[in-house]
Inverse folding.
């Protein structure tokens, strides 16, 4: 009986402390109601496409300047913004948030839905939506900056806030690096970022060591043919037939060309050719996405795509100067790998601040990509930690598991997350991580 009483007493003492969260949680909640909520709603109603985020970048620059004590530079790597907050001698921490939306017409039914359109970099006007939660990320970055400014007596060092463009085209991080992110501004000792996740419940954080996101390469295969009348196929070289052969042959790369113990994806997402029933066109274009979890597999898949495309052309009698052209490297990112030691430290900080129940884990079930990888490649010597913040109420997830309404996925026109718990926990978690890494 005495043992049971002791256990109950311990539970009563510990549980409230775990549920309370960090000691500045009330400040974050108040800041959300007073300032961050309106900011989030504005971002969600007015999303912008990759490389076109001028309005969003201007607001982020204005908000960072308003915090006070932050040196703000705009136009880094295109529309990127960098804010440097210095607070004495100490480590340098990079905090990154991506800001671009997606070319989707929103159908979420939210009262603050986006209805805007924008001319994309291809010259075509498209509807735009925050269908991946980047509005949460940039709002939480402002929340984090405001909290750190209020608590300068608790930390020493430098925080570099990186507002990154074009994550959806997996090119913005690389452009910022090429524009001198690590030479024009303080080079970080650690780099942090988070992503709101519709598949995880609100109030939970996901941070595991090792691979966080797969590599991704967009690949175009341009197939040149010889146009002809559909009734006289022998007088031409049909790029649609060659394209079809390439599509089918590509399926052997993962199933027969790489080890079954190494994951890989080769998906043909678009096949564009022709415009009339009875005309054999002179060109077809395939658009692919390629995913892997290690550089050897990545290189093998890309080499295999080139080999298959060119040899299908040869098999169909094309001369060497007309072989299918394989274009790669215009949208690509390496694997994102969380540093083991940094991950353990940040996980410990989360557990101490929120209680161990905050940490949530499920096996990876997709090969999503993330160009945060460019900031933490091993040759740079910058360890990174990329975590996820739950964005969907547990009740909605439970209902889905029981056969109810499915939780909309990222990149869906129906996508939504709960803004208040997502923004506030994202703000609290990032602030906790930075405070731990920069504590006196």
């Amino acid at each position: 009986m005495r043992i049971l009483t002791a256990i109950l007493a311990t539970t009563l003492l510990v549980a409230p402390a775990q549920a309370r969260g960090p000691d500045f949680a009330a400040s974050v909640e108040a800041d959300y109601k007073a300032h961050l909520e309106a900011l989030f709603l504005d971002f969600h109603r007015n999303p912008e496409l990759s490389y076109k985020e001028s309005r969003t970048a201007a607001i982020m620059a204005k908000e960072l300047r308003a915090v006070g004590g932050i040196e703000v530079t705009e136009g880094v790597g295109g529309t990127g913004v960098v804010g440097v907050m210095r607070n004495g001698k100490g480590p340098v921490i990079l905090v990154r948030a991506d800001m671009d939306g997606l070319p989707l017409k929103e159908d979420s039914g939210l009262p603050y839905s986006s209805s805007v359109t924008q001319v994309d970099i291809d010259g075509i006007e498209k509807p735009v939506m925050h269908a991946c939660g980047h509005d949460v990320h940039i709002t939480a970055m402002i929340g984090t900056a405001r909290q750190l400014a209020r608590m300068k007596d608790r930390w020493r060092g430098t925080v570099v806030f990186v507002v990154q463009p074009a994550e959806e085209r997996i090119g913005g991080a690389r452009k910022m690096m090429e524009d001198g992110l690590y030479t024009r501004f303080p080079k970080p000792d650690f780099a942090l970022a988070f992503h709101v996740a519709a598949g995880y419940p609100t109030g939970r954080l996901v941070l595991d060591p090792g691979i966080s996101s797969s590599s991704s390469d967009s690949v175009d295969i341009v197939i040149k043919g010889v146009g002809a009348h559909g009734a006289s196929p022998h007088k031409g070289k049909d790029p649609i037939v060659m394209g079809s052969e390439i599509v089918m042959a590509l399926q052997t790369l993962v199933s027969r060309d790489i080890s079954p113990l190494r994951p890989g994806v080769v998906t043909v997402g678009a096949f564009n050719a022709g415009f009339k029933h009875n005309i054999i066109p002179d060109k077809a274009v395939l658009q692919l996405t390629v995913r892997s979890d290690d550089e050897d597999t990545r290189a093998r898949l890309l080499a295999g795509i080139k080999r298959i495309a060119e040899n299908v052309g040869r098999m169909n009698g094309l001369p060497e100067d007309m072989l299918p052209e394989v274009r790669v490297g215009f949208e690509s990112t390496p694997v994102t790998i969380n540093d083991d030691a940094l991950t353990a430290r940040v996980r410990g900080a989360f557990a101490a601040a929120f209680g161990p129940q905050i940490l949530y884990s499920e096996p990876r079930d997709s090969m999503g990509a993330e160009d945060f990888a460019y900031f933490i490649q091993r040759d740079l010597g910058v360890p990174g930690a990329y975590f996820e913040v739950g964005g969907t109420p547990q009740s909605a997830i439970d209902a889905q598991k029981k056969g109810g309404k499915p939780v909309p996925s990222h990149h869906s026109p129906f996508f939504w997350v709960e803004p208040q718990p997502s923004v506030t926990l994202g703000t609290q978690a990032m602030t906790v991580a930075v405070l731990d890494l920069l504590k006196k």
Remarks:
- Residues 215 and 335 are 4 Å apart (CA to CA).
- The longest strand covers residues 190-201.
- The chain has two domains: 20-213+335-437, 215-333.
- The chain has a mean pLDDT of 94.
